[in-house]
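#struct-queue
[09:14] JT: dropping the first one here, sequence first, then the structure tokens:
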Amino acid sequence: MARLERELRPEQFVRRPKVALWTGTVLIAAVVLIALFIPTQPLAIDQRWSEAMSDTPSAALHHLALIFNYLGRGLGRALTLAAVGLALLLKKRWRGLLAFAAAEALTPLAVNVLKHILDRPRPPNAMLHATGSSFPSGHAAYAGATAVALVLLYTRPGSHRLIWWSVAALATAGMAWSRTYLQLHWLSDVVSGALLGIGVTLLSFALTQLIPRDSSDKPRTGSKLPPTPQAGN
């Protein structure tokens, strides 16, 4: 009985896990290709977006951007991940916990690898101190990964998910905006980061859903029971 309780319980995160698997793979591959071919200098759209952010100073927007910054790093990020992980642990949702842990571990790993490969300079007028390469945005990647993971974990597949996908998109876009408003990343950095986080999460959850259930505790198909001994005549 204890072994059955420890068993990975099947969970349906998506209706078509193979489609999610390939979608995640394509998104990751697209970001890798962007990293290989994007110039270290900002694109024209990056420059225009940065100028637009500089032309809209606002105390309220600045405070909002700082809130996003706090949620995407350090204690704010740790508390969020711990809360979700603890909730899954208490509910014994082992597959959900495995998928969530994989997504949140692989996303920053992928971000750091790409940062090392490209080493793109950050915008010159950053409002906060930041180190490392500008591409891709780790905050945007974290937001995309976490927002998608929460939808997959706490809503059921179906058309009613549309509202929650919209909320996830809004949260991810908000984090991406905050990084450009604070002049910490170019627009292409945050878009690529968000796509990377979403891709890694789709891949993690699809693979976890496709893990076959352990059948060692089930009787094998076609197995026969040993013959019952007959009493002597």
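[09:21] JT: and here's the second one, same format:
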Amino acid sequence: MNYSSCADQPPMACGVGPSVRDLMSTDVVTVAPDLSLRSAAELFAARHLGGAPVMAGSRVVGVISTSDILAFEASTPDAAAAMRERAEWEQGPSEEWREGNDPPSAFFTDLWMDDGADVLRCVEANGSPEWDPLAEHTVADAMSRWVVSVAPETSVVTAARLMTSSRIHRVVVLDRDRLCGVLSTRDLVRAVGQGRV
């Protein structure tokens, strides 16, 4: 019998327990290195994923996870806060409001020329967006280039030990450098719950 891919092959019947091929997910979502981190985060949220392999053409060049994205964002300086601080320094000391002067809210009324306008619309019309580091950076900026992979015929126990020792939640399954699946901790838990392991 001929098989077109490793996902189509039958499970190993060697009596040693299931192989990675038996439990891996074959419907693998991949991302490109030039995808924005914002788009990757939105994709992960929409598909309920914790991460994905990063593909350049047909080659796996890295792995990106939600943890990588969060760590990247946490380590990126808050440009908006820096801009606010700089603006405060340039303005000099603030003046106290004294009775008889225009109230501080008059600034916004004058700025928007329509004190009955919708506040959100006015803020958006003013064009003062916060800097979004996730939109400005790509998957290549945050991905792990250290790809932990196993072959489809690897035993599940071996793969689980590798994931534990590497402190990762998924391994990429490669058949002669060709991506054919991903084995995640979710796949392992599901298999245990179903009594397959």
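[09:30] RK: nice, looked through the second one.
[09:31] RK: The first strand starts at residue 51 and ends at 56.
[09:31] JT: good to know. The CA atoms of residues 44 and 50 lie 6 Å apart.
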